[in-house]
Design brief:
GO terms for molecular function: ATP binding; phosphorelay sensor kinase activity. The protein is of the alpha+beta class. It contains 5 helices and 8 strands, in the order E-H-H-E-H-E-E-H-E-E-H-E-E. Bound molecules: adenosine-5'-diphosphate (ADP) and magnesium ion.
Length: 237
């Protein structure tokens, strides 16, 4: 088990800075990409050089996008929300990717789950990141379960996979920026999740067993917590 919030609290300032920088990098990247594509069309002899440049640009773009996920969106909208349609939307969004990887996602909700005071787009981002990780943890395919339950007056959400699992000694690394074990990973997904859940006054826990699978638990309060700085009070970037 790893309790990730303390780490994410430390990252709060770094995260906002990173998101600010990411925002500034985006436009020049788009312009660079356009000119490289143009040059590629005009110079047949150096196609492979241009292709490498474009691949590397895509890589920068991916990292920048993930860092941008850390920022509070300008049109941030916290409201009372039923999480069932939100989760169903996310599953529908990622399902075609799951099917291609031979992964079956099933969803189960306990009855009478209360609404949660939350930012819809940011919570969707969290579940997209978690489902992607679950899919990536099962290279040969398998089942993912998304559950929603009551937990002591709060709402608990679970993403369970039957993937490769995480060795105990790697647990403390989770949520650190750029910590990844994947060739094409960014190591920014879990950090973003932690930051968003922290913004909601919730907690994120990870349970895992090598060779058996991983469960990510998110516990969210059902009411606005006055002690937590809900975005909307400040625009960060
Ligand atoms: P990335 O997916 O880009 O590597 P993340 O922050 O999403 O970055 O995840 C960091 C690391 O945590 C992953 O590289 C992987 O080693 C581990 N991890 C996260 N989720 C899972 C999971 N469901 N099963 C196994 N390992 C996981
Ligand atoms: Mg990830």
């Amino acid at each position: 088990t790893a309790r990730l919030l303390q780490k994410s609290e430390k990252l709060a300032i770094v995260g906002q800075l990173a998101a600010g920088i990411a925002h500034e990098i985006r436009n020049p990247l788009t312009s660079l990409k356009g000119f490289i594509q143009l040059s590629r069309m005009q110079d047949e002899h150096k196609q492979e050089y241009f292709d490498i440049m474009l691949t590397e640009l895509d890589r920068i773009n991916l990292i920048v996008s993930e860092l941008l996920g850390l920022s509070k969106p300008i049109d941030v909208l916290y409201k009372e929300q039923d999480l069932k349609p939100l989760l169903q939307d996310v599953v529908a969004l990622i399902n075609s990717q799951a099917v291609m990887e031979n992964v079956l996602i099933s969803v189960a909700f306990e009855p009478d789950i209360p609404t949660v005071f939350c930012e819809e787009n940011q919570l969707k981002q969290v579940f997209i990141n978690l489902l992607k990780n679950a899919i990536e943890a099962m290279p040969a395919g398998g089942d993912i379960k998304v559950d929603m339950k009551h937990k002591g007056g709060k709402v608990a959400l679970y993403v369970l996979d039957e993937g490769i699992g995480i060795p105990e000694d790697r647990m403390p690394k989770l949520g650190e920026p750029f910590y990844t074990t994947k060739e094409k990973g960014t190591g920014l997904g879990l950090m973003t999740c932690c930051k968003i859940i922290e913004n909601h006054g919730g907690e994120l826990n990870i349970f895992s067993k090598v060779g058996e699978g991983t469960t990510v638990e998110i516990v969210l309060p059902t009411q606005k917590n006055p002690a937590v700085d809900m975005p909307g009070t400040a625009i960060m970037i």
